[in-house]
């Protein structure tokens, strides 16, 4: 006979559909160690995006020393992402539910919607990039692909990606460990080939970047860790309530920082030797033919593992908005929308580059939000009332009709500051161009302005609560 305690312990098992959503995870279902977060985040960060970032750093003219400084400093923000995951273990629910404490029960729907929209957008982009890589791999073996063949391969990619996300947390943790080993070893194999490649014409040594260009490069690197700010607690909520906050922060940081630094460095070195306008095909002259095929597989695998994170957390954001469906159904909604967008991009009009440029502006909302969320954790010492977080009325976090003015004032001010200090391709602010000399300080401005304002406006109020 299976006891209630045993049944609860089996509720979050690999390859069984996880039934929990944003509800509080009971202590009887919590297990594991913070070091499992290393695999979750390492797998999610073995991606082509860092190759692209590294290539852009080379195009900007950074010296090797400048590149290393930018990559190390920018990716230190992964420490903040790890810190943001601590409340997941303490209270047992998702990131965008914990943020109700800062924004109010109703007010939190706004960042939840933006979080969901951003995640679904990246799901579609990853599907498109993964599909193009898959088409290239199959055609490289001499197999012609028509529209039907491409549609079938896209369908296989989507079913696998969204299928794992539907199965849920335990399956993602299990799969990320496997993908981390496989993709990580393949990525390390790129290093000796990139370093030993000798182009016909020796590349000129980069002249070095001036301060505005250096700051643009730093923002470009920092945008990657900040993009994960809205999902860290989603993967810690099954940890024991007393799990070490320092360990949660450390293992999240380490799993993200290592691949981010290594892969960005590979992209930078490769871009100094070959044209990486095509970040996949550009590696063909550098790599042995058989290894180039492995590299394409690596790109496909990275798009899948990154989408595990995007899809799972976008489902959580959708539930945090107040949608009254189960977690698997929320992910199915995401799957339909993201797949439809990828079909349009592949077969009708390729909007991928434009859409990536648009999504890059999302740091303007997420950096200020991240600052408020982190300051709220610090002010409350990580202690939250779980019942109030899930209460329809907001409980202790109801504030003025469900909206916390202090958080919204700080957030809006941070968004304005971030947009004023951006020099992104899609939006070059006059202030950034004329006053900052073209430097991009959007992430720093958003973090500092929102963080300080929230501390000033809400610090006493939270201390008295």
Automatic annotation (TrEMBL):
Major location (coarse): membrane
GO terms for cellular component: plasma membrane
Subcellular location: Membrane
InterPro entries assigned: Pur-cyt_permease, Pur-cyt_permease_Fcy2/21/22
Keyword Acyltransferase carried by entry: no
Transmembrane segments: 38-61, 67-86, 113-135, 141-166, 178-199, 211-233, 245-270, 290-309, 330-349, 355-375, 406-427, 439-457
Domain of life: Bacteria
Pfam family, any one: Transp_cyt_pur
Family: Belongs to the purine-cytosine permease (2.A.39) family.
Protein name: Allantoin permease
């Amino acid at each position: 006979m299976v006891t209630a305690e045993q049944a609860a312990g089996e509720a979050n098992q690999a390859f069984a559909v996880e039934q929990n959503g944003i509800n509080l995870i009971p202590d009887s279902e919590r297990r594991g160690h913070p070091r499992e977060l290393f695999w979750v985040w390492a797998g999610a960060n073995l991606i082509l995006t860092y190759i692209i970032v590294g290539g852009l750093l080379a195009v900007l003219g950074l010296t090797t020393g400048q590149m290393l400084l930018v990559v190390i400093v920018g990716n230190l923000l992964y420490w903040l992402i790890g810190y943001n995951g601590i409340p997941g273990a303490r209270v047992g629910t998702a990131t965008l539910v914990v943020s109700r404490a800062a924004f109010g029960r109703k007010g939190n729907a706004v960042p939840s919607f933006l979080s969901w929209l951003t995640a679904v957008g990246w799901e579609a982009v990853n599907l498109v990039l993964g599909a193009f890589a898959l088409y290239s791999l199959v055609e490289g073996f001499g197999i012609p692909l028509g529209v039907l063949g491409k549609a079938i391969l896209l369908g296989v990619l989507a079913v696998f990606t969204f299928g794992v996300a539907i199965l849920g947390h335990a399956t993602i943790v299990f799969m990320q460990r496997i993908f981390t080993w496989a993709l990580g070893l393949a990525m390390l194999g790129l290093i000796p080939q990139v370093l030993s490649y000798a182009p016909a014409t020796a590349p000129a040594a980069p002249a070095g970047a001036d301060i505005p260009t250096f700051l643009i490069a730093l923002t470009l690197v920092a945008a990657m860790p900040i993009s994960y700010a809205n999902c860290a607690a989603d993967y810690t909520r099954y940890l024991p309530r007393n799990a070490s906050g320092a360990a949660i922060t450390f293992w999240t940081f380490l799993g993200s920082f290592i691949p981010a630094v290594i892969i960005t460095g590979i992209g930078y070195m490769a871009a100094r030797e070959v044209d990486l306008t095509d970040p996949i095909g550009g590696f063909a002259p550098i790599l042995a033919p058989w290894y180039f095929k492995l590299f394409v597989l690596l790109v496909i695998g990275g798009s899948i593992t990154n989408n595990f994170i995007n899809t799972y957390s976008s489902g959580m954001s959708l539930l945090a908005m107040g949608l009254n469906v189960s977690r698997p159904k929320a992910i199915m909604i995401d799957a339909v929308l993201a797949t439809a967008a990828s079909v349009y991009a592949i077969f009708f009009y390729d909007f991928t580059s434009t859409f990536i440029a648009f999504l890059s502006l999302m740091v303007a909302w997420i950096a200020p939000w991240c600052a408020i969320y982190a300051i709220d954790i610090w002010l409350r010492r990580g202690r939250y009332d779980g019942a109030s977080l899930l209460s329809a009325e907001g409980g202790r976090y109801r504030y003025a009709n469900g909206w916390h003015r202090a958080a919204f004032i700080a957030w809006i001010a941070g968004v304005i500051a971030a947009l004023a200090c951006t020099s992104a391709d899609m939006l070059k602010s006059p202030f950034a161009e004329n006053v900052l000399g073209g430097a991009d300080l959007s992430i720093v401005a958003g973090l500092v302005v929102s963080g300080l304002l929230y501390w000033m406006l809400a610090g006493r109020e939270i201390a008295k609560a």
